[in-house]
Here is the input.
Amino acid sequence: MATAFGTVFMPEMAISWFDGSAWSTPEMVPSDSLQLHPGAHVLHYASTCFEGLKAFRHEDGSVKIFRIDRNVARLAQSSRLLSLPALDEAQVTAMIREGVKRFAADVPAPPGSMYIRPTHFGTEPAIGKAAAPSLTSCLYILLSPVGDYFAGGDRPLRLLVEDNGLRCAPHNGMIKSGGNYASALRPTLRAKAQYNVDQVLFCPNGDIQETGAANFLLIDGNEVITKGLDESFLHGITRDSILTLARDLGMKVSERDLTVEELLERAAKPGCEAALSGTAAVLAPVGTLIYHDQEYAVGDGGVGATTLKLRKALNDIQWGRAEDRHGWLTDV
Ligand SMILES: *Cc1c(COP(=O)(O)O)cnc(C)c1O
Here is the structure.
């Protein structure tokens, strides 16, 4: 597919509205417009969160959704932390499955997939509610068929190691919310212009957290090192899946704080690898780190063999080419 990721949409989406006391019966509506009051809470006070998950076509023609339970649980958690109305997780799950089922014929074959974007936001027309939650909200499930993320080949990424700025307010890190993306945009654009990097690796006070939209993993020989879960960053489901598969492959997994100093020391060793994890790319290799105006290659600066091995192990499960030992796939 020649189009940019996430710019093609299925013509309909499942939608439900919370009126302050109950969720409306979900329905399928055209996906090209949405009517909102200009005073809607989300447009002023950013009461919004979303998810990103994928459905895959298997060789037998069936369509499977990857780790839907985890994504729905995370959307419910984001909603809770943003003081949005509580979700009905069973209803959200059913909406996702119904939507994908309706457009099952449009789910691309591997390496493509159907990207699923559940979105929940506050709709109450109340611009006086700067410090109060929206009592009403809207939830919809947008569907976007996507092609091969690595269609142009694997290119190791360049990251600016930023030990000064923050991606978002520390108490909001584990919320998958548009506001956090808005907060990361300016430092990311500045870094792109100044250092020709792909992403910023946010490391406040030298503590390595994540980039604007992906988790960071250091792969040093047989060990995977990544920050342990806390409130400050987004708990990626790809991160969790890759760590599980690394353990299955007999690798050592260390979930702990990692400083910039240790990162640069380890990255200098031959064979060291780094990668970014997220639903869109699964695992993307990192070849270069830029820190205090100096460039550091990670290992040989190329695409790491272990990174590719772990990505393949996950893709094989998603694509139905390896046994789903952890029960990660759901039928639509
Ligand atoms: C979505 C997201 C990730 C990756 O999460 P996955 O569940 O693996 O897709 C990482 N960091 C941020 C900030 C995110 O928004």
